[in-house]
Amino acid sequence: MPDKKPYVIILANGLNGLGAVRSAAHAGLKTYTLLTNHSDLCTYSRFGQYRFLLPPNPTADDLRPVLDQLHDNEGGPGVLLACSDLAAELLGQLKCEGYAKQHLVVPSTETTNVLNDKKLECLYMEKGGITLPKTYYQLSDDEPDAFPIIIKPRTFREYGVLGAKNVILNSPAELNDFRQRFKGYLDRFIGQKVVQGGDDNLWVCNVTFDHQQQLSACFVFKRMGTMPSHYGVTSMAISQENQKLREECEKIGRALNYTGPAMIEFKKDQNSDTYYYIETNPRLGMCNWFDTRCGVNNILACTHAAYGQKSALAPQKNNWVYWNFFGDLIARLENRENLLSILFRYLRVLRRRRIGALLYWKDPQPALRYARSSIRDMAQRVGRKLREKVG
């Protein structure tokens, strides 16, 4: 490391940002947090000592004055880290412009643009020999030979068009209804055959590649629950080493000429034991605090890469459980899981070493805020259902 104490600048967003701030503190790094929402979870963290509020949809022009000032105050560059797709795009843009007052451990703009567009991403991976589920690029014309299929927006900007991160279609009739409903917007989505298997067939690799595109950190976990169920973000997971997926990540990094942190997702087919590539997010993964508590600090790995320090792959602690209690409970209730089965699942989880998505005794305020919001949300949902039942 240089003589001056290294520092990181985290473009925070929700759980991703909270985990990154805690991981930076765990590594002893000075941390500046850039927020786009004054009620973001990082606002309540005791580890986010230095915070700056950006506009809701910041541009590179909004970032530069803050970054320039931090460079001058610290007498040198820090390390910029993205916790959202938008933030990843902004850092890619800064790199393309040749911005040099802060370290940018990020993939090229071209790579970021490919990974933030599902159509381009899947076409690129197919060309690179990566195993994908059957993918439909022209939803107006393609006729799937099997259902269900999952509809995915090409970019995060289309979430608002679809009204969700994805939609499951179970029959040709549902596909025809979808075509009618989104007529004129079909080129903004792709479809993929749903890989058979439950939540525990979903695997995630949170990784960092250095400037030589070498894997410098890799943490692997298997999902046990998602929110919403089956097709959402991680609500429960267990850390498990998987050499096959580690090698697949190395292959993807070389194919993309990738530098920086990434979250790479796979799904194992329950019938063939084949791992199918799902997606790569060119940013820190949501569960990066889980990585850190299990011995793999991707924030520290990015810092080492930025300052030209080689870091050996750290071994991970296996069979530890990540648990977002309220998020997981709401997802299972919405999925109409049996209450007893939920209870028994949680009792089994209590026998293992657990890492809370939010709960951390050294930093309790974010968990309390999240719990209050979740309880209020649950009460509102129950109230709506009761009113619908009475009505």
Describe the structure.
This protein is an alpha/beta fold and 391 residues long. It has three domains: 7-108, 3-Layer(aba) Sandwich (Rossmann fold), CATH 3.40.50.720; 134-193, Dna Ligase, domain 1, CATH 3.30.1490; 199-365, ATP-grasp fold, B domain (D-amino Acid Aminotransferase, Chain A, domain 1, 2-Layer Sandwich). Helix content is 38%, strand content 22%. The strands form three sheets. A seven-stranded mixed beta sheet has the order 14-13-10-11-12-15-16. A five-stranded parallel beta sheet has the order 3-2-1-4-5. A hairpin with a 5-residue loop joins strand 10 (202-209) and strand 11 (215-227). The radius of gyration is 21 Å and the shape is globular. The N and C termini lie far apart (66 Å).
How many domains? The number is 3
Task: Let me know the CATH homologous superfamily of the largest domain.
Answer: ATP-grasp fold, B domain
Within the largest sheet, what's the order of strands?
A: 14-13-10-11-12-15-16
Radius of gyration: 21 Å
Structural class: alpha/beta
Along the chain, the helix and strand elements come as: EHEEHEHEHHEEHEHEEEEHEEHHEHHEH
pLDDT averaged residue by residue: 93
User: What percentage of the residues does DSSP assign to strands (E)?
Assistant: 15-25%
* Residues in helices, as a percent range: 25-40%
Assigned CATH architecture of the largest domain: 2-Layer Sandwich
CATH topology of the largest domain: D-amino Acid Aminotransferase, Chain A, domain 1
